[in-house]
Amino acid sequence: MEKSTATEKKIPRLRQKYSDECAPKLRETFDIKNLHQIPRLEKVVVNMGVGGARENKSMLEAAMKDLSVITGQKAAMTRARNSIAGFRLREGMPVGCRVTLRGDRMWEFLDRLISIAIPRIRDFRGLSKKSFDGRGNYSMGLGDQIVFPEIDLDNVQFVQGMDITIVTDAPNDAMALSLLDFLGMPFKK
To answer: In this structure, are strands 41-49 and 94-101 parallel, antiparallel, or unpaired?
Structure first.
């Protein structure tokens, strides 16, 4: 008789899909001999730049709270690296927040992004295949945080966009595109 313990860890659905379906397809498509050369996800970085943070500190606090709710991890404040007189910005001033997701949180966030958030975008026609950086990493932007179901529309003080970067260990953009396509990212046809 098997014992069921409360400490059993449930594997995220998208990670299971990667192991069962995506990795074998990638291995076959690119004729990969070594298992360690199959492209995989390393991390997902979610960034919110808050332009009005200089005048209104509550905007930054609201953005950090929303980002923490969306990702399930505490957001870190980002500060200006350089002073820019035209923007009345001094080095060290808070300008946004970010979260770096790895492991199960990364897989769960990506699953929610692909299956729930992206389909809720108005007038969505597919993600661009041109947003790769040449090293196998993909970046995309969302116009507002309210596409995530975790955000309560009644409590939103400021509508804020975000940038999402998916970092892979793929050696080129073609392999990274295939990886994300097999995972279910809705690219333009």
So the answer is: antiparallel
Cβ proximity of 97 and 64 under 8 Å:
yes
pLDDT in tens, 90-126: 677 777 889 999 999 999 999 999 988 888 888 888 8
Query: How many CA atoms does the CB half-sphere of 135 hold within 13 Å?
Result: 8
Predicted structure pTM score: 0.86
Residue 168 phi/psi, 5-degree rounding, is -115, 170
The answer for residues whose C-beta is within 8 angstroms of residue 1's C-beta and 6 or more apart is: none
- Beta-carbon-side half-sphere exposure of residue 35 (alpha carbons within 13 Å): 1
CA 84 to mean position of chain CA atoms: 28
Q: Are 34 and 130 in contact (CB under 8 A)?
A: no
Model confidence pLDDT, tens digit, residues 128-169: 899 899 888 999 988 887 788 888 777 777 788 889 999 999
| Beta carbons within 8 Å of 73's beta carbon, 6+ residues apart | 99, 101, 105
**Dihedral (CA of 187, 143, 95, 74) sign:** negative
H or E element that contains 168: strand 162-168
Q: Give the SS3 label for residue 79.
A: strand
Q: Which domains does the chain have, with CATH numbers?
A: 30-183 (3.30.1440.10)
